[in-house]
Amino acid sequence: MNSEGRPTQPQIATPLAPQTFTGARALQIHEALIFDTGRLDFTGVDLDPPKPFTPRLGGLERKSEIGLPGLSEPETMRHYVRLSQKNYAIDMGPYPLGSCTMKHNPRLNEKMARLPGFADIHPLQPVSTVQGALALMEELADWLLKLTNMDAVALTPKAGAHGEMCGMMAIKAAISARGEAETRKVVLAPESAHGTNPATAAALGFSVRAVPAGADGLVHPEAVAAALGPDVAAIMLTNPNTCGLFERDIVEIARLVHEAGAYFYCDGANFNAIVGKVRPGDLGVDAMHINLHKTFSTPHGGGGPGAGPVVLSSRLAPFAPVPFLKREGDRLTLVEETEGTQSFGRMAAFHGQMGMFVRALAYMLSHGADGLAKASEDAVLAANYVRVCLNDLFSSPFGDRICMHEVLFDDRWLKDTGITTLDFAKAMIDEGIHPMTVYFPLVVHGAMLIEPTESESIVSLTLFIATLRDLAIRALRGETERFLGAPYYAPRKRLDETAAARKPVLRWTPPEPIED
């Protein structure tokens, strides 16, 4: 980079791109909707008429044509390959979505998940025929308990929000067992909490009491103490929080919550920053969900549904949902019934997503305990590298402080430029980089939340930083047209996002016939 922080490689000028007959631009192939391409009276597969049969759908069988367009096999393949080429992906470049942990998914994990005995088992098989799969789940649970220093784990939740529901249902069951269901009706949630936290509490019949964050972006014990009372059931706190900061007073907050007779739920969405470095059980946490699809490979459910196991302290372990694993000698079984237990019941029909369990354990075994700790260190180091390299141009809402695995900027530096956070994010698309998370957390105006993750190399990070510096310098120089019309090179250019959200077109209608 030169003294201005801009790339030093030569910028190659290109002539104005001509219009093409097809609408394609070389390898950027224009692709119409499949309904505009295929024919309703055509199919790419020859099927013999069925022999006479008696329907078994109770009168619910289709009476009319299905109305799907037919394509030949080559046309079908080309259609979906072309569509896939219009999607950004972690295998194409960095995906710096703050709070989302979009990192590389090791192919070894994918290979393991596709092994026979994992990929082809059925949830209704007798447990005697899936002992290997249950053993894998047992070992995964053991790793999760050791990494968190908790007493029990529920593997059934399918994602973070589902895990939140599980943890809070365990808390509700524990409060009910104490005979306080009618008095403890309030859940505390910091103003910077993930939106699912208050939503989960409200869905379970609790009212939500907001806890303000301090000027430093952290929750302070005094604010928690002021909100506590005999009506409080729990607090839901994210650590590291959504501002990318470690809650330094979390142990004191846990002490205050427990002294008030309430429980401590920790949102584990950001566990990726502290795995192998901090055990939530040591901090006083009673329940925490873990996004396997973020922390331990398979970002955001790639290859199937997510998984959000919940670890529970000894205070909540008796209330874990069924089914749960139980070892009887050298055999494993699943406890399916709640009779004789304090379990709050069942979260889902079956135990969980086997592919996610395999990927997560493969990730753990590949790294080892020391490797997991190193991954956390690298995630934090990468975020701080971005912070240090951008802090002379970007503005930080809580000062230039060491962050955890994600760094948060606001839009004060764009004041008087006529450019917004959204405009800046759209310009990143033209540079071939997925934008960071914008306008979240809500407590920061024009937020830009960047999480580079531990899987980006120093070369990748340096190019990312250089690109953002170049865009920032252009914005501060007043090159507004570069931003206000961006993205220029995306297949559909800039969309009216408000209209798309409020008036989505969800049904294809045939175009009007062209008259001769």
Task: Describe the 3D structure.
There is one protein chain. This protein has 516 residues and is of the alpha/beta class. It folds into 2 domains: 109-364, 3-Layer(aba) Sandwich (Aspartate Aminotransferase, domain 2), CATH 3.40.640.10; 371-502, Aspartate Aminotransferase, domain 1. The protein has helices at 34-37, 73-84, 107-113, 131-148, 160-177, 196-203, 221-227, 250-259, 292-295, 354-390, 421-430, 458-476, 481-484, 497-502; strands spanning 152-154, 186-190, 207-211, 232-238, 263-267, 287-289, 310-312, 324-328, 331-335, 407-409, 437-438, 448-450. The strands form 3 sheets. A 7-stranded mixed sheet has the order 1-7-6-5-4-2-3, sandwiched between helices. The protein is globular, with a radius of gyration of 26 Å. The termini are far apart.
Please supply descriptive tags for the structure shown above.
12 strands; 2 domains; 7-stranded mixed sheet; Aspartate Aminotransferase, domain 1; Aspartate Aminotransferase, domain 2; single chain; 516 residues; alpha/beta
Short description:
The protein folds into 2 domains: 256 residues, Aspartate Aminotransferase, domain 2 (3-Layer(aba) Sandwich), CATH 3.40.640.10; 132 residues, Aspartate Aminotransferase, domain 1, CATH 3.90.1150. It contains 14 helices and 12 strands. A 7-stranded mixed β-sheet has the order 1-7-6-5-4-2-3, sandwiched between helices. Strands 10-12-11 form a 3-stranded antiparallel β-sheet, with helices on one face.
